[in-house]
Amino acid sequence: MQKTLRELKIGSYENIETATEDMSIITALHKFVERRVSALPMVDAEGRLVDIYAKFDVIVSDIILLHFL
User: Fold this and answer.
1) CB–CB of 1/8 below 8 Å?
2) Phi-psi category of residue 63: left, alpha or beta, with phi > 0 → left and psi -120 to 50 → alpha
3) Using CA atoms in the order 34, 36, 38, 39, what is the torsion angle rounded to 10 degrees?
4) Can you give the pLDDT at residue 19?
5) Exposed (0-12), middle (13-18) or buried (19+): which is 65, by Cβ within 10 Å?
6) What dihedral do alpha carbons 18, 24, 58, 49 form, nearest 10°?
7) Helix (H/G/I), strand (E/B), else coil: 17
8) Distance between CA atoms of residues 62 and 69, nearest Å
9) Please, what are the domains in the chain?
10) If you ran DSSP here, which 8-state letter would residue 10 be given?
11) Which of 7, 27, 57, 60 is most buried, judging by how many CB atoms fall within 10 Å of its CB?
């Protein structure tokens, strides 16, 4: 239990895929599928982390859109 997450090879530390606040949902979905990840760090124009965009967020967004449109 004293080992770090990196030592245990948990998580990603290189070649991180990100999303931006103005990225389309379809582009984000392609990134999820192509990179086989369940979440994307969302960064601003300067590359600073502003949120985490998860597949769950996409699913909920789609359900809301389909239900209320």
Assistant:
1) no
2) alpha
3) -50
4) 94
5) exposed
6) 30
7) coil
8) 10
9) 19-68 (3.90.1280.20)
10) -
11) 57
Whole-number Cα distances in Å, 39 to 1, 2, 46, 54: 25, 26, 20, 4
Average pLDDT of each block of 10 consecutive residues along the chain (69 residues)? 86 87 88 90 95 80 65
Burial class (CB in 10 A: 0-12, 13-18, 19+), 40: buried
pTM to 2 decimals? Answer: 0.67
The whole-angstrom separation of Cα 9 and Cα 3 is 10
- Would you state the structure tokens that stand for residue 59, as one six-digit string? 């699913």
| Polymer length of the chain | 69
